[in-house]
């Protein structure tokens, strides 16, 4: 697994384009989310210079997982687009709280036998690497905006996680906000 940071133009080997293409395949094509795409790539206003990416690649450079980490001291997905998932609470704004979003662990090339996006060993490893990366940037807590299936992954992890509010159906998909304590 490789941790990459920065905007698309400074990432090695056009890796950001591969991540954006992977996100399109997973979130738009497989999950049916209505997201902004261009030329088969998914990105939004939160993919910027201070965004931190965690990317899982195989030996051939095929992506099998990704996660996006954003400091909540700047605009982020939950705070800007889905604050209703916080059940009336103010969105966090702290250098010690980072958002985990665009988390996916799907082997689109069929190289690994994965039981599901949120129940595979790859998903657990991606979560561990995402947490380690967030901690290295000063995070003490993560907040997510995620599909309900992430709860299954979190319940099997070593992290203390709990809902920030009840799940909601948005765009026809059940999603929720979740706190992950990192101490």
UniProtKB/TrEMBL annotation:
One of its GO terms (molecular function) is N-acyl homoserine lactone synthase activity. Keywords: Autoinducer synthesis, Quorum sensing, S-adenosyl-L-methionine, Transferase. The keyword S-adenosyl-L-methionine applies. Pfam families: Autoind_synth. The keyword Transferase applies. Its EC number is 2.3.1.184. PROSITE patterns: AUTOINDUCER_SYNTH_1, AUTOINDUCER_SYNTH_2. InterPro entries: Acyl_CoA_acyltransferase, Autoind_synth_CS, Autoind_synthase. It is an enzyme of class 2 (transferase). GO terms for biological process: quorum sensing; signal transduction. It catalyses: a fatty acyl-[ACP] + S-adenosyl-L-methionine = an N-acyl-L-homoserine lactone + S-methyl-5'-thioadenosine + holo-[ACP] + H(+). Belongs to the autoinducer synthase family. This is Acyl-homoserine-lactone synthase. It comes from Acidithiobacillus ferrooxidans (strain ATCC 23270 / DSM 14882 / CIP 104768 / NCIMB 8455).
């Amino acid at each position: 697994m490789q941790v990459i940071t920065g905007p698309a133009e400074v990432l090695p080997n056009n890796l950001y384009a591969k991540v954006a293409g992977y996100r399109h395949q997973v979130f738009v094509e497989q999950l049916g989310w209505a997201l902004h795409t261009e030329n088969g790539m998914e990105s939004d206003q939160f993919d910027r210079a201070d965004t931190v990416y965690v990317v899982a690649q195989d030996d051939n450079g095929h992506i099998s997982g990704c996660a996006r980490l954003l400091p909540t001291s700047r605009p982020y997905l939950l705070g800007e687009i889905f604050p209703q998932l916080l059940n009336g609470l103010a969105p966090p704004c702290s250098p010690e709280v980072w958002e985990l979003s665009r988390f996916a662990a799907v082997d689109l090339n069929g190289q690994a036998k994965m039981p599901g996006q949120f129940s595979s060993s790859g998903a657990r490893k991606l979560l561990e690497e995402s947490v380690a990366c967030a901690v290295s940037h000063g995070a003490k807590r993560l907040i997510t905006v995620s599909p309900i299936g992430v709860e299954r992954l979190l319940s099997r992890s070593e992290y203390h996680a709990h809902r920030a509010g009840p799940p909601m159906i948005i765009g026809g998909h059940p999603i929720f906000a979740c706190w992950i304590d990192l101490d």
